[in-house]
Recover the amino acids of this structure.
């Protein structure tokens, strides 16, 4: 029986074996960056070593008030997750994120 994993879901969806590049912000969003070939995997891996991370997101029904007004700061604490139990902890980590739209 095949396990229900990110890799198996990608394989079943795209018919190609993914190569994990990086799990971005594992403790918060858990966004995974994957590639389908070694050249792309290496290029993405090397790009992450350069410095500042820039994320692009597709959003709906939000943000129109900020569109075209320059960068702004989201100042919201992040709730931690217990690594062993996956349960949310009661403590929070300070987090400020600069966003441009």
């Amino acid at each position: 029986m095949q396990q229900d994993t990110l890799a198996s879901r990608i394989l079943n969806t795209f018919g190609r074996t993914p190569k994990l590049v990086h799990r971005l912000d594992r403790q918060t969003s858990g966004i995974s960056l994957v590639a389908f070939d070694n050249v792309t995997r290496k290029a993405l891996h090397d790009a992450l070593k350069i410095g500042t991370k820039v994320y692009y997101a597709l959003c709906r029904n939000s943000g129109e008030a900020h569109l075209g007004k320059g960068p702004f700061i989201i100042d919201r604490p992040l709730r931690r997750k217990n690594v062993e139990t996956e349960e949310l902890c009661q403590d929070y980590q300070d987090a400020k994120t600069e966003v441009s739209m």
Observations:
- Residues 70 and 100 are 6 Å apart (CA to CA).
- Residues 38-49 form the longest helix (12 residues).
